[in-house]
Structures are given as C-alpha cells and as structure tokens.
Amino acid sequence: MGRPIQYRSHPEESVYGGSWERVLLRALAGNAGGTPRVLNLTADDNVTLAGDVLEGPRSVVNVSLFNNSLLTGAMRNATNDTIETGSQWDMTDSSTIAEDVSVKGGILMFESGKTFAATGKAFVLSIGRNYAMDSSSTLSLGVGGTNGSQYDRLEIQGTATLNGTLVVNSLNNFRPTSGNAFEVVRANLGRSGEFAHVNDFLNNNPNLQRIDVYAPNGVALVYVSATPAPTPNPRPPIIDVIPTPLPPVDPGEPLPLPVEISILDPTAEELTSLYEVSFSGVNTQRFNLDERLAELQRGSTGFSSNLNVYKPPTPYEGKSSVIDEKSGKSVVEKQPLLQPTPENRWGVWVTGWVISSTSRTATSPKATTSPQEE
Which end of the chain has fewer CB atoms within 10 angstroms, the N or the C? Predict the structure, then answer.
C-alpha cells in the first residue's frame, strides 16, 4: 500500500482529475483536549481514489464524490458521505458513517465478493443518522447465505428514504430456496419510499417468486415457491407493504419470515390468493349489481309508473250484475286487480366499484345513459 496521507492541519482537501492509486486517506485528531479537526475531502471530475478513509477519535471528515469520481476502499468513522453525478463508492470492507449518507445520481456498491470467499462474511454499512437515495441512484449488494452475517446490508440508526435501483448479486454462487428472507435495509426511525427497480441476479430458479417486503422500519427480500414462471422471464415481482416492523438481524441466524408471509405454507399462489379474496368477493357483488341494473333497464322486472287495468274475460262481460241461479240474489261483478304493465322511461344509471388490499387500491366508476322499461 502507498504511503498514507495524513491530514493534520488543512481544513479543505480537493482533488481534481487524475488517479490516486493505492493511497490510504487518514484524518487524525487534533491536540488532546482541543477542538475537533474538520476535513472536507472532495473528489471532483473523474478522480480515482483507492484506499481507506480512517477518521481519528476527534476528527470530522466529510467525503464528497462528484462528476464521475470513484473511491475504492472502506470508511471508518467518517462523518458524512455524499455520492453524486455519476460517482461511485466501491466499499471494500464493512464501514461506518457517523451521520448521513446521500446518493444522488450515484452508485453505492458493496464489493464483498473476495472477502466473502475467504471468510464467509459479508459487509455491513452502519449509518449513524439518515440514508437517502434518489430515482437515478443505485444500491448494489450481495447475498451469500441466510444468516445475517452472510449478506450485505444497511444498518441505519435514523431514517431511510428509498428510490432508484436495488441490485442483488450472488456471493460464492449462493442461490436462495423457498422460505429464505434477507433484511437488506433496516432503519430504526422509519422507512419511506420504495425501490423503483430491483435487478435480481441472485435467483435463477423459475419456480421461486421474490416478494419485496416493505416494512415500517426496512426492506426484506423473501423467496417463496411458485409454479414455473410464464414466458418471458423474469416473473413480475410481488410488492408487499406490511404494518409489522421487521425483527433485528441476527448475524448467526436466518431472518424469521414476517408474520404476514409465515402464515402461508408459503407459496406465491397462496400469497396471491390471500389478497385476492377481497377482490373476488367485491367483484361478485359488483357483477350481481350490474346484472340487476341491466334487468331494470330492460324492464324485465321491477318498476312501473303508469297502471293500466287489465280485465280478463268473465261471464259477466257487459253486465253490471247477474242473478245467482241458486239463491236468486243479485251478484255484483268483482272488479279485477290492477296489474302493472311495462313502460319506457329514460334514466341515468351510475355504478361504481372499489377494490382494495393492504397496499393497492383500484377504482373503476361507470356511468351509462339508456332507455329503461318499467
């Protein structure tokens, strides 16, 4: 490794262009009992840095990568990290950021493949405050097993604001099986947003369905059994927003399935049917209502506005009364009951239906104008 660069007095260090290979970037503390030393390290305009950023116990180091710059290395106790405008941080070991990590149009990549092959351990990025990524950003991590120490993940003490793309790779050719779950993002103070895209290079089994579980405090990827995927692959993901917080990650144990999924066997068909029960019930009611309204519009049953008297033929036709042959008394003719007959009437029929599940709502109102018979 190259000679360490020790920043002892300069508050700003900016690098523009060029390549600084095999350099260890180190920020040391000020005098004992003195004020913390602050270093703003900025790499701008296609800068390549290789090495670790190590912050002393009484230092403040803010690292910023702009305009297609690259840092390959780990950060230990850095204060803030900003990755923007096509820049990339290739994290080569578990790292800690004391405050915030912001990714805007950049890439945060866990380069854990070599380390995992040698040690069986993946990486953790621990963030003391908040993590945020925008729609043009990418988070790339690897999965090498089901235990918490075997897959890359974010551990965030504050909040996580998610967007952009999540890329999931295989470490040491690991492939998931039904029931495997991986809590890749954990935010103790809450999660908002979802990944717009998930590029799954981990699962190569057409009989497995990935479910992206978004909990109030994080994100887990869950794989369940499914029928063979339709053509073309990959099969569309299932996005499940649950109200239950995810449990803490245990480095030595697999993640328990969220209760909303563990109640199933589980299979993707059963998961889908769980949320389709309400859909089928509502649809049945809607279709019955539509059929009833159509009957009313056709005048087959139901309403009548004008009543016409219908007189069936009787032996008393044309007579007000007759003499009963047996009793000799006059019998008054009984008037027939009033019977409704159809009549056309114009009307406006409005129907509407609403279908909802835990995470999605669909509405489809319908209005028609037509003559109806009554």
Answer: N
